[in-house]
């Protein structure tokens, strides 16, 4: 008693009320007069006793009581069974009709001349009309709702609101208690009579109708706080669909519910009367909860059990909650109540609040006609929502156990299949005094057997081959996850006292719950925002026929987007490093510093960077609660990063090896060039010696040198064997003859071809197909011609790109280059968007190949000439004439030759500086564009979004057409356009900054090389050769500046090495200025293609398109594992899809079709249900298309805006089943832009 009174003194009014209510239930004496130990005054806790004797009148909380009484005056003016209809009108038939229509959206059907999208649009319109009816009934607010909302909205004191709600609850119970008692007795009598008349089948239906009528009346007369809050939610949902979003009432309603929830008031999660979740209302409440508390971590505890099995009592006993436990007032639907965790325990437990979800009983008699589906929905919903679910079993009735276990196992199996991992505890109540260990062991064993059997059966039904027992479904230990509870009462109530053993059982269970909560992986503890998304995902999936197929984890998708943005940054870091290393390697190879590639010089820094990125990835999964949800994808991202790292290393090593091999293959030629160079150099020096002591002008020096130059070159090269040029035209003809060898008249075609430009001859190049009935051949239409021209332009563009790329390699011509052109033509012809109306003839490929071969031949000839100029000894010597003259001039000038020497050296350095600056700037600018351009700084889906915005702003159909049918080339053009914009506009200042940075870096490198080489060369050889060795070695990793290019001046005598240093340093600034001007002159022309290539390689990813609607897979790896997927699909009309044997477009979305009973027909005549689209094989089997009713408005606007263009292009009509719904026509361009920009 002392402990009881101590607790009583420390408690507030609500806690006292709770204590006294429990004491009353247990038949204990109640303290009517309580002496206050602090001031010796006597208290009479009447308010706290109000639920014990409701006839007592209260003195405290007078204002709250008066307001509650005022409301009751309003209610008493209406008959009880009419209260809901008149004062809570939004939650009745209108809400029920809206729910039915909303559910219909997930079960769309093609019917008669109505398509799925038309059905969907009609249903959406009907839903909006119902909401309008609700608004008419809601406003102006009736006296009840106006008063309640004013009180809850205007009173800042939480206690006042809670007092008011408690008084109102008491008053409502008083108002309805007697009436409900009579109705329940009436129903009980009817049920008894129905059982007695069960043998007479004709009268059973009559009795059932009477029982249902009484049940409806009971429902109409049941009135509580929950119904008023439900009406509040319906007012909010109706207002939200109205355009007037500024309504202050609209904004305040979720605040009210969130405040109540924080105060510990249970809030309805699922409406039990219609078995539906008001998603918008629940989402808004969670949003406001997050706003008020911060996005705190929640441990979600839910409970499942048969009706009247003591679920609510158990939760109340565990946590001191206030879920309804009154006799005759079973929980309907699902309610959630928030419990705050003491701050001292949050770090230890890993969460800030417990969200307890109480549910209505399974197998409820009043839901017998729809009980099984409803129970499965409810179980799946709360198990999917909860981190831990208490499975409450009352008594030892085998059939009742069978019922609940079957439902529970099915729900847990569903969670496993959608990669949600909840846990559970079984609470077996009312099994008598469980004392014998053997008895509990037998009970556990029997339970496990039942669970295993049901898991196997459920797995067989769901075709889940990896499940043979319950432990395969979830982590389950029969010894620690099953609890046996004694009876709540020690005897028969109402006179029986509570059983102390029940309290011990509750405490043991509570301890286990906390242990389980603490062991929960951090990734599975949700934040408030996550719970909001989980509720939406679970409910939307439950509304469809196939939960597994339809479940979309939005929470995971958002986390994935966040992780992909980080991945985008990490991959750019890797690419940038490898690019820098590759450039450095190429410089060293060109300078002759590397003759054999030692792979660790490339691998070590890349692996070091990779390990750093792996640590960042690990840190993300450890520290970021959002990304922790993707723990199952961690290995996948590690593999993707490793794949990229290895691919980059391999590609860079290949390029380096290729260059080394190329230089090795050139060694013979280089040796000849070097020998001839030495011979000419000797002749030049001899000439200079013969003129020793003679002062000659620049003009006279040129005259003397030129007189002998041609003779020297002839003498040196006369021993060379004749050079045979490749017969490029002959090669091209032979390759074409071999490739098209099956064509009869190929020789004459080659002989007679003379065209420089490819012109399409539709009769010769295109073969039209037969119509649907096969009776006649289709005629070529303008849209066919446009499509053919676009395909041709795309092929020509790709071939030009590859030919230019080959030319830039500065290698010699190779016949295999022609084969690369043939591969491009073949691939593009096979993948052309012909809409099954035509095919390209073999003659098309021949004529196009001829034209492109002819153009490529010109390029290949130029390439060969350039290679010959660079590598043919005679050409090489001719190109070195100026160098030899400079060497001759220096030899003639003697001691005054340092200036000429310095001029010669800078003449070689300046082009190398310009070239290096361009390369450095390309990487810097590409990195800055990727960082500052919003289209490029996240993931592939983000790039796609910005492309769609750009297309809508331009409203150019031809651009759309290229995007739909040639997405890869469109993406590259889009990137190139952004790069050009950067150069012409916002990036101009940064370009100058990057240029200055690069100039400063190179300037410092050259200055350092001058100083270092001079310092080391002091007192050594009198020729400049040693100094040049040191100077080139210092610059060997910075510039392409081969030492061998300086042979012509290496013999010069330099007596004053200090003067050489000063002369080189003095020339540094003016020469760098020259390099800057030279770099800027061709910067845009040379750098833009390089930047475009870097960004394209970084952002490209997968280019596969949905076989139904042409949506592009958003995976960032071209050859990724697993299915192709895309966040949003499109109307099938965008790919030219039409209804079978008609010219009517199909406007359906494939995400709607896969949830319907529709079929699609393949070219081979096979009919495949959309629900099992993967059975079509091929590309269909590689796509994951999830049912989804939330489509973007973007493509609906596009279809309306470009309707006539689409009809022209595809030669089909938006009529009959393809008729565009009126709702689509109301979508504006601004609507779609706003929608994209908010995502």
From TrEMBL:
Keyword Protein biosynthesis among record annotations: no
* Gene3D superfamilies recorded: P-loop containing nucleotide triphosphate hydrolases
- Residue ranges constituting the VLIG-type G domain according to the UniProt record: 295-536
Pfam families with a match to the protein in the record: URGCP (PF25496), URGCP_9th (PF25974), URGCP_GTPase (PF25683)
Question: Any idea which UniProt keywords this protein has?
Answer: Cytoplasm, GTP-binding, Nucleotide-binding, Nucleus
- Show the InterPro entries listed in the entry: G_VLIG_dom (IPR030383), GVIN1_dom (IPR058641), P-loop_NTPase (IPR027417), URGCP (IPR057365)
- Domain of life assignment: Eukaryota
Where does the protein end up? Cytoplasm; Nucleus
Homology family: Belongs to the TRAFAC class dynamin-like GTPase superfamily. Very large inducible GTPase (VLIG) family.
- What is the protein name given in its UniProt record? VLIG-type G domain-containing protein
- State the species of origin: Rangifer tarandus platyrhynchus (Svalbard reindeer)
């Amino acid at each position: 008693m002392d402990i009881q009174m101590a607790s009583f003194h420390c408690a507030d009014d609500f806690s006292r009320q709770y204590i006294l209510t429990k004491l009353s239930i247990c038949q204990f004496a109640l303290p009517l007069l309580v002496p206050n130990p602090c001031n010796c005054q006597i208290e009479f806790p009447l308010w706290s006793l109000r639920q014990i004797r409701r006839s007592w009148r209260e003195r405290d909380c007078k204002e709250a009581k008066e307001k509650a009484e005022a409301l009751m005056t309003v209610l008493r003016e209406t008959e009880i069974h009419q209260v809901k209809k008149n004062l809570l009108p939004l939650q009745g038939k209108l809400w029920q009709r809206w729910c039915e229509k909303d559910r219909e959206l997930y079960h769309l059907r093609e019917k008669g001349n109505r398509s799925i999208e038309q059905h969907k649009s009609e249903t959406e319109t009907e839903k909006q009309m119902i909401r309008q009816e609700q608004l008419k009934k809601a406003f102006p607010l009736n006296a009840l709702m106006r008063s309640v909302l004013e009180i809850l909205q205007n009173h800042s004191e939480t206690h006042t609101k809670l007092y008011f709600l408690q008084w109102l609850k008491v008053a409502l119970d008083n108002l309805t208690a007697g009436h409900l008692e009579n109705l329940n007795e009436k129903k009980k009598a009817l049920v008894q009579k129905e059982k007695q008349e069960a043998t007479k089948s004709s009268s059973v239906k009559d009795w059932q109708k009477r029982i249902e009528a009484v049940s409806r009346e009971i429902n109409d007369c049941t009135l509580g706080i929950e119904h008023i809050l439900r009406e509040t939610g319906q007012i909010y949902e109706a207002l939200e669909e109205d355009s007037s979003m500024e309504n202050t009432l609209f904004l305040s309603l979720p605040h009210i519910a969130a405040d109540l929830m924080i105060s510990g008031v249970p809030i309805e999660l699922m409406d039990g009367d219609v078995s539906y979740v008001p998603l918008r209302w629940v989402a808004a409440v969670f949003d406001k909860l997050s706003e008020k508390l911060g996005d705190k971590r929640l441990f979600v505890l839910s409970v499942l059990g048969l009706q009247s099995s003591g679920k609510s009592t158990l939760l109340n006993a565990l946590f001191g909650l206030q879920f309804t436990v009154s006799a005759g007032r079973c929980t309907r639907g699902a309610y959630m109540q928030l419990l705050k965790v003491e701050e001292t325990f949050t770090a230890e437990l890993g969460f800030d609040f417990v969200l307890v979800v109480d549910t209505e009983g399974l197998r409820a008699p009043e839901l017998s006609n729809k009980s099984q589906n409803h129970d499965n929905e409810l179980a799946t919903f709360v198990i999917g929502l909860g981190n831990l679910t208490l499975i409450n079993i009352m008594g030892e009735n085998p059939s009742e156990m069978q019922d609940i276990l079957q439902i529970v196992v099915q729900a847990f199996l569903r969670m496993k299949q959608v990669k949600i991992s909840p846990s559970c505890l079984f609470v077996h109540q009312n099994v008598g005094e469980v004392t014998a260990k053997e008895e509990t062991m037998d009970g556990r064993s029997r339970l496990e057997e039942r669970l295993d059997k049901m898991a196997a059966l459920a797995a067989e039904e769901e075709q889940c081959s990896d499940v043979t027992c319950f432990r395969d479904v979830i982590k389950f230990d029969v010894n620690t996850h099953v609890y046996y509870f004694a009876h709540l009462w020690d005897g028969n109530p109402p006179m029986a006292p509570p059983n102390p053993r029940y309290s011990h059982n509750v405490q043991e269970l509570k301890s286990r719950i906390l242990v389980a909560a603490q062991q929960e992986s951090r990734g599975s503890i949700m934040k408030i925002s996550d719970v909001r998304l989980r509720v939406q995902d679970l409910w939307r999936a439950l509304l469809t026929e196939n939960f597994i197929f339809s479940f979309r984890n939005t929470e995971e998708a958002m986390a994935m987007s966040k992780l992909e943005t980080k991945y985008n940054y990490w991959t750019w870091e890797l690419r940038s490093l490898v690019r820098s290393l590759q450039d450095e390697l190429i410089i060293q190879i060109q300078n002759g510093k590397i003759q054999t590639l030692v792979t660790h010089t490339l691998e070590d820094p890349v692996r070091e960077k990779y390990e750093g990125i792996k640590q960042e990835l690990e840190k993300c999964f450890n520290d970021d609660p959002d990304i922790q949800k993707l723990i199952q994808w961690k290995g996948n991202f590690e593999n993707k990063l490793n794949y990229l790292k290895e691919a980059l290393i391999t590609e860079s090593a290949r390029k380096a090896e290729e260059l080394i091999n190329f230089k090795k293959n050139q060694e013979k030629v280089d040796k000849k060039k070097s020998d001839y160079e030495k011979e000419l150099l000797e002749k030049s020096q001899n000439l200079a010696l013969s003129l020793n002591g003679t002062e000659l002008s620049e003009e006279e020096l040129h005259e003397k040198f030129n007189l002998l130059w041609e003779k020297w070159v002839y003498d040196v090269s006369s021993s060379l064997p004749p050079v045979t040029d490749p017969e490029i035209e002959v090669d091209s003809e032979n390759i074409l003859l071999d490739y098209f060898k099956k064509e009869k008249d190929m020789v004459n075609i080659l002989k007679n071809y003379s065209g420089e430009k490819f012109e399409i001859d539709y009769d010769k190049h295109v073969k039209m197909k037969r119509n649907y009935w096969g009776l006649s051949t289709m005629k070529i239409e303008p849209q066919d011609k446009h499509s053919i021209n676009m395909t041709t332009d795309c092929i020509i563009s790709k071939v030009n790109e590859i030919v230019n790329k080959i030319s830039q390699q500065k290698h010699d011509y190779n016949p295999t280059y022609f084969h690369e052109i043939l591969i491009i033509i073949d691939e593009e012809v096979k993948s052309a968007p012909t809409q099954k109306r035509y095919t390209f003839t073999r003659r098309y490929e021949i004529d196009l190949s001829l034209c492109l071969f002819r153009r490529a031949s010109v390029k290949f000839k130029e390439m060969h000439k350039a290679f010959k100029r660079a590598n043919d000894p005679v050409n090489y010597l001719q190109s070195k004439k100026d160098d030899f003259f400079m060497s001759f001039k220096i030899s003639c000038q003697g001691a005054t030759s340092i200036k000429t020497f310095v001029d010669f050296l800078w003449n070689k350095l300046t082009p190398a500086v310009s070239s290096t600056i361009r390369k450095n700037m390309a990487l810097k600018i590409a990195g800055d564009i990727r960082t500052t351009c919003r289209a490029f700084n996240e993931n592939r889906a983000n790039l796609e979004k910005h492309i769609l915005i750009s297309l809508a702003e331009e409203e150019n159909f031809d651009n759309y057409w290229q995007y739909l049918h040639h997405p890869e080339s469109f993406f590259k053009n889009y990137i190139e356009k952004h790069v050009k914009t950067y150069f012409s506009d916002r990036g101009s200042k940064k370009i100058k900054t990057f240029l200055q940075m690069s100039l400063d870096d190179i300037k410092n490198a050259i200055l350092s090389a001058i100083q270092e080489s001079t310092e080391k060369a002091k007192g050594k050889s009198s020729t400049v050769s040693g100094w040049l060795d040191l100077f080139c070695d210092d610059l060997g990793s910075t510039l392409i500046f081969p030492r061998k290019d300086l042979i012509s001046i290496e013999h010069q005598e330099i007596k004053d090495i200090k003067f050489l240093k000063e002369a080189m340093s003095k020339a540094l600034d003016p020469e760098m200025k020259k390099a800057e001007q030279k770099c800027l002159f061709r910067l845009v022309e040379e750098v833009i293609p390089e930047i475009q290539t870097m960004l394209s390689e970084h952002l490209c990813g997968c280019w596969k398109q949905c076989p139904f609607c042409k949506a592009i897979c958003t995976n960032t790896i071209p050859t990724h594992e697993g299915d192709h997927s895309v966040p949003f699909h499109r109307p099938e009309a965008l790919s030219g899809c039409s209804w079978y044997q008609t010219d009517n477009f199909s406007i359906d979305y494939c995400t709607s079709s896969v949830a319907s009973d529709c079929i699609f027909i393949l070219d081979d005549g096979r009919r495949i249900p959309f629900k099992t689209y993967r059975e079509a094989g091929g590309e269909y089997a590689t796509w994951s298309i999830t049912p989804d009713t939330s489509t973007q408005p973007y493509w609906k606007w596009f279809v309306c805006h470009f309707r006539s263009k689409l009809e022209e292009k595809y030669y089909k009509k938006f009529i009959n089943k393809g008729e565009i719904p009126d709702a689509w026509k109301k979508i504006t361009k601004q609507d779609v832009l706003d929608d994209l920009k908010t995502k």
